[in-house]
Amino acid sequence: MISVSKALSIISEVSYTPKVKTVPLKGTNGLVLSKNIDSSIHMPPFRQSAMDGYALLLHDKNTYQIIGEVKAGDPDDYSLLPGQGVRIFTGARVPNNANTVVIQEKVIRSEDIITVHGEVNKNQNIRAIGEQIKKGDIALAKGTKLSPAGIGFLSGLGVNEVQVFTPPSVAIITTGNELIPPGQKLQEGKIYESNSLQLQSVLEQSKIKKINKYIVQDEYESTKETIRQAIINNDLVLISGGISVGDYDFVKEALSELRTEELFYKIKQKPGKPLFFGRNNKTLIFALPGNPASSLTCYYIYVIPVIQKMMGTITSLGLKRTMKSLTEDFVKKGDRAQFLKAKTSEESVEVLEGQSSAMLYSYAVADALVFIPENINQIDKNSLVETILLPQ
């Protein structure tokens, strides 16, 4: 049994070469660039007005003759004489020899003559060519996670497709004779299966679309064959249940017979002690505890960093962590590290009722996990605790 920090260290060091693919820019939110994108144009590509007003060629008076108008998108240029100007609008091309734009609030107009009030400086309210980015400069670097703003920025540079690290294909294997699908009549001794849909939902939060689901009974040969097929056909395998030491827990034995390299098994934590992580050829494998809350906690803490790595993230692996003050005293039982379902406010965090590894109702309202290290047994109210923010 290893510590939480040791398990995370092993995950951070595991090697994986992400797959890459050129895809349309649309729909890439959350994906990671696999190569630098250089700008093919200056942005802006012409001298651009930053305000609605008047583009002028300055002279020594405060009155100007207006000889035309330039709207955003107009291709025309005007050659101004000193003391002349044009009406101009935000985003429009500034005439080549205009040397200032005066906002309309500082101008009084009478027919084609304007009078300017206040100080006027050269080049004010003019966006220079290449002010935002110059042609040939790196627009977004390899490893950048695309956001709506990043997608808008690239689209504004004329980019319509990008090369990204592609999300892995993921298998979800659910084990257990006691499980039946929701919608069927509940029989004695049976429970509704929830882990596969839960795992599918959190995978979709990570922009993973290729998800293959398998169901297997508690029988050794079928367990082994299902795992074998999942390893062959997927980049990542998540097995729910069957990894403990019961008479009908066959996952660990099957993985061993399939010559899976064990990277770690069992972590000194609660919930989620019987967690397995390994590799079989190029496929990475997690065997998660069967209890729903344990399974989800292990996913948040250990699977997400692996998925991030498989999708090209090279820094800041894992969920965001912060420090918040605890709303009540907390006493930990036992010597294992704990991940506690919690609810945050602006400055504080509340540990919720219902911390059992089988209880999901408290997870349904939680937005964080409070991490209590194994060497700490009591935390006083208002003390700062490490708080792991869950994806929403």
TrEMBL record:
Q: Which SUPFAM superfamilies match?
A: MoeA C-terminal domain-like, MoeA N-terminal region -like, Molybdenum cofactor biosynthesis proteins
Q: Which cofactor does it need?
A: Mg(2+)
Q: Name one GO cellular component term.
A: cytosol
Ranges in a coiled coil: none
Q: Which GO terms describe its biological process?
A: Mo-molybdopterin cofactor biosynthetic process
Q: Say what the protein does.
A: Catalyzes the insertion of molybdate into adenylated molybdopterin with the concomitant release of AMP.
Extract the PANTHER family matched here: GEPHYRIN, MOLYBDOPTERIN BIOSYNTHESIS PROTEIN
Q: What is this protein called?
A: Molybdopterin molybdenumtransferase
Tell me which species this is from.
Aquimarina amphilecti
